[in-house]
């Protein structure tokens, strides 16, 4: 009989006759864990029977014989195993079956924090309310001042001491990964696999039994869920296994980590480090330079995103819409954010529109100094959905922070570009009133909460990380207006969100319609804010905290090039999903970028630390955002105008199998168009350190250093696209990289013109000046 070998070289198991589980135990012994392969039989989409392998063989009903073996590749790192499980049906036939590997842990403690990137944070062990979309907590009894984090009906482990499970496919995660952190053992476990096998996407199951003190992490091929997640609900899945014939086989690749982690930030740093360890480097496709892409979108906005009814004039997404959502939303999904890229690339018309739009904001400011949710032709609306007309003064606290943060930067842009005379002095009165309102709210409640009554200043819904951007806003306001109270509250809030949320494996509640589910927006805005605190104060503690927030944020970013269906919109253009950013554990789609930031906090962290992971993450996001912009050469969404961007980068089937890789016909979402603009305007096309080997190319061009001399660095730049490129080049020395970048540094970067299919050489001196073009 052929013999199959199980990790003999790694586990040191020289005793014949050991079971497969025993052979894996030495590697996972510090976690009381072991792994065992299985054959699974299904009744439709329901698991009917599990058959464990015994000495690499499974016999079923005396007629079906399965065999399994495993290859181990030496990693050279203690605590890391790269495994390939091979399964084959040796004899017989089996219908509706699959295979898998179960990693089971004994002496399990429910204080262990379970994570799956973009799907599960701290096991999603939060209070859950069964509220249909769009969810909001209307019952006052459910939103007491000391309310716990509260989420919708998403896959989660139980907060009660009872058995529970989570079922997913690999496509429900930004990285095909299951992991947990054990505070009591100070250990971490990470399990990586590939998106799919020839059977289709693989499946993930997390199963916990507190009574038995066990937990299991299962990878199955193919993935078969009994229930699948749709918006705020679980429904019967359409998954199915396959019929196996004699000789059929499949291989499942895994990479497993068992490592020391004395705290959660160390655990998340490891997640950040290994997220591409199995999938490897992703591919970048050069489609259209940043400069040309920005022109296409801005031209689209000039033509279609302006309302002028004779009385009201403002930038908005849908000027002809009857819905307030199509008009001015303050901060989040609206003004001044939509005006920001227009201030970076101003024209006389754009400046006039910016001024008019910011003047409209004064009409949306409540007595407390905080901002209403929406403004439509003079009428104000609340953020509380079914009650938006009855209780109009209820708004997300995040809105005020974004108004303050982005307006201060727009003022700076206008002043630096010679439009300072256009700034209305009343803007500063409005912004100081907003900053005072945030300070008053903080002093009253000791936090910013999530939703607030902007007239009375009373909290409507507490908790969550929704107010994270208020930290950066107050820090900038303190510097602008010289008021130390703003900085004091900013730092106090930074510490609160770090200790209360981040160190518990949670950031959430950013978007209006997810209750307080974990989400990418709160993670990104916390990373942005902590980075701003570091640059303004120079205190290393904020840099360390910003690094942790950035590591958590990285878990929301797709780390590999997902295989879209060939006939889908994204499959048709060969889109690379790497760098798209998942929305939340409730809204299970990825999206073109960071809502609603440029990601330049990653450039700032790269400069401050030299850590190449920030550079790579930024390139994934900024470079790949271009592919989601509809142009004549890159048509996406039937009937979509050039410059349009849709929100959806669907990897999962949460909106049905037909939604995977497809975008809505004719969709033009100004929020995501603004995300694309900020990503390519606030970040350099090329970043170079003139006295080190650091060269980061974000734009859709190629660049390499030809030589370094006393005169400077000779750089060769090639434009492989069909469009002319005007490339922003940011060059500095290593010493200079230790200085804060601050806001709107993009205005200072010199531009290099490179024609379509052209290759040029430029000489850059040590001060970043371009000497020869």
UniProtKB/TrEMBL annotation:
Q: Which organism is it from?
A: Parabacteroides faecis
What is this protein called in UniProt? Uncharacterized protein
Q: Which InterPro entries match?
A: 6-hairpin_glycosidase_sf (IPR008928), 6hp_glycosidase-like_sf (IPR012341)
